[in-house]
Design brief:
Layout (H helix, E strand, L loop, with lengths): L1 H27 L3 H6 L8 E2 L11 E3 L5 E3 L1 E3 L9 E7 L5 E7 L4 E4 L2 E4 L1
Antiparallel strand pairs: 1-2, 2-3, 4-5, 5-6, 7-8
Amino acid sequence: MAAKNSVSLIVAVIALAIVGLSFAGVLQGYAASDVLTATHPSSMCKDSDGGMNMKISGMCIDSRNTEYADKCIPGLKGGQSRAVTEYYCAPNNLCSPLPRQCAGNEVCADGACVLA
């Protein structure tokens, strides 16, 4: 009997938490699904390669409508590039650069890491 009461109590607490989150979202102008999934509006910042994806050259457009293209970081002394600046949508809805090395058997071409 005690186990059944514990399960009922847990279910009641979860239900109250969901109702509370839904109510808080309504007060702030968000739908309950936005509050529960903690997403930011996708129309604020868009990254065509889906985020931090060094294998695909992408374009990031942020909330200021500024465009940033993923690009290769020049190699030393004119050599083949082995690094990329990957732009992604940061939590503040602005595009943020992330310099990354390509894997050992990859080089950077047109803003993406590809097999050498």
